[in-house]
Fold these 3 entries.
Entry 1:
Amino acid sequence: MNHPHFYPVGTSGEPWGETEIEQWRSRQSRLRRYDRDVVPRIEALADRFEKVAYGELDYAGEHYTLFALRDRDFDAALPTALVTGGVHGYETSGVLGALSFLETCATEYAGKLNLLTAPCVSPWAYERINRWNYDAIDPNRNFRIDGPAREATALIELVGSVQTPFLVHVDLHETTDSDANEFGPARAARDGKDYETEVIPNGFYLVDDCENSQPEFQKSIIAAVEQVTHIAPADAKGEIIGSTVIAHGVIEYPLRTLALCPTITGARYTTTTEVYPDSARTTPEECVLAQVTAVRAALDFALRYP
């Protein structure tokens, strides 16, 4: 169902200009701190991993260094894996899941694969608990080398600097109630469109690439995560967020067409996790554990079937 414009920025039917973007920015408040929440955990991991400063952001005088952690010695004979969190900064368990994986499980893969992790791709949005960056741009629709989101282009440059080919990329996300009551309406207003009601799925699901479908890979992740949290069922149309459910808890997108993050490595195995943190059936700790479990299941499968 389409609804007429109701977001409190902009004029119905008219895309935003700089004036409206400034109005939108004025509504954003710093609610948490990247330098206090995320960076100290990255620093603490620097005794085990090489800390890489792979980009700089400066938004109206607020400065952010983009950090990744990588194995100190990349072995050309081993497969390489990328784990990304916080592409959408408001998706908390993605950031915390990437960090928790490094802190608790990553050593299990030493000597088995080369690991590169970017735990918080969008720190400005992390602090505002928002989907977009400072310029009201969604990084996860702009993973192009010439794209407008520095969060995305910096990560592309980091991946391009890696000399070994990637086998697997796990991109950690959430689908939240705020997608329906804030970010969906904001996107429609920004683009001068009516808002189409979204039904938020109740549970964990995965997004596969319809141009590089890996059904057994996705199935293995769902089976592991199902031991931690509930899997989202299909709606009455057999869909999750408007896409046909192709397997239990799995939908597909044309990732390259949409310029989504998992396209940047060319890996054989890619997945986007989607945790539902607003469910009464889960907890923040369980959401983080679901992300860690998904990463482990993905890496384990990729190592078994390289």
Entry 2:
Amino acid sequence: MQVKHYETVFILNPVLSDAQVKEAVDKFKAILANLGAEIDHEEFWGLRKLAYPIQKKSTGYYVVLEFHGVRQDIIKVLEVEFKRDEKVMRFLTVSLDKHAIAYLQKKRGQNTENA
């Protein structure tokens, strides 16, 4: 089976406390771990202004997770969990090709030899 790399960005409701935000992020990381995915990188962008209102909110907590795994249904299961969680306002998951992976590693100052 081939390892596939993904990047997912999700926006959490701005009314959450710091503890609730951390709990939500940990929940999605645990879901990925249970699916056999490994998280390559995690970024918390914090509270940001949205380009347009979502659910009558103008801000949200942005979280980025880069991960890889071999299961074919990782994204399907993860996105069902995003839809079920009322804390998540929006999400987007993209598949990364080798060029995107190399770019992201270079951007973070990591060695790209094993990509």
Entry 3:
Amino acid sequence: MRQMAARLGIDVDEHRWPRLVQAATFESMRSRADTTVPAGGPEHWIDPAAFFSRGTSGQWRDLLDDADLARYAARVRALASDDLVEWVHREPID
């Protein structure tokens, strides 16, 4: 968080860091899902807390078969540059 704040040029008082770090934990964000989930209202999610399913990266892959994954990779590659794709995805997508 400190690196991101520095990169964005945001000055944060030292005494505020513990509270900010706590607020950014998985459990804290999940407990406030109505306000932390993108488009977190009930019009988009049956249960906004489900957005924070397990707290692991890539769990969505379990929901897709090989054809779905290939379509996903093709769409991502069509929309984003290689460096962005590599930054967003920690593992190769195709």
